[in-house]
Predict the 3D structure of the following.
Amino acid sequence: MNALVLGLVFVTAFLVVLYSTPPLIKVAILKRLFDEPGERKIHTRVVPTIGGIIIFAATLFSYSLWFELDFSKVRNMIELPQVYQYIREFKLIVATLLMLFFVGIKDDIIGTAPIKKLISQVLAALILVLVGNIRITGLHGIFEVNEIPYWASVFLSLFTFIVVINAFNLIDGVDGLAAGVGFIVTMIFGTWFIFAGDIILASLAYALGGSLLGFLVFNFSPAKIFMGDSGSLTIGLVACVLAIKLIEYPTDKLQELQLYLSKPVFVIATLVYPLADTLRVFTLRASTGVSPFSADRNHLHHRLIDCGLNHRKTVIVIYILNLMVVGMSVVCFKLNASIALVSVIAFALLFTGILQLVYRAKNKSKRTSPEE
């Protein structure tokens, strides 16, 4: 029964995007809601930027349509609080998604100041952390730390929401990248929740996964439409909710492999590309005295393109890298959480270092070729 529900969630979202995107592209072109080529832009033609409307609508429609609680299991008052918690979280997730969606769609159409987008993200995070209690309560063995004080839990959770939401916004710079990475992330999280027996969280992951797969049909290079901020903010918020719920999932409901696997390390490995790229770019900008939210071409996907790869090859390399890091976190399931985390970070840094060397060698050959 659960497999049927998840299949319906995924297929419904996929079909809604598949059949609704072409008309949206026509409307966007007629109303001139597109992104024009520019100095910092990679694309060389006008492309509609409001694809996030379809991602948001399909995810919310499919998740709400097939949202199901098995009330047959509620046989005593001990189980009722969990049911109420699911309903409460459902309402808060929908409410915060709506808020970020409208902020994103305004930015896609007429533009929004970065500080206003940041305020909306902080507000959404505060609602989910303080009202919904969706927060990280400890480090679960990393650096030998388990529980942390409430104030530290709130601060860490708010920081996590802001970072993850902005991470997906920042990687949306190459055809199919944000949608593809988002699809990988949601399907991995959704599969994890299937093994944990949580149909509700798995449904949320699969609803967004189905939407993103349908969107990739039109967003993969050469892209016919971009998701814009309305899409990237939606992906970031849902991905972060799933990540925190996974980290804090009760151990008494997990399978044997899930018990041994460090949940924070698994989450970091799954989100490795958005997190690594954001950390790298923010560090570079801060070191040069530039605002962390300013635009540039220092992202890893820009580096890959500058090394000679096209859009398709660039995103495929990043997809493979992301899956390899996740695989490494699973292989290290018996290791100490701190050692596993260091292994995952070291692998990501190794890839980044190799890419940087190739990029510098490429630039050096370009500079020396005219002299030769």
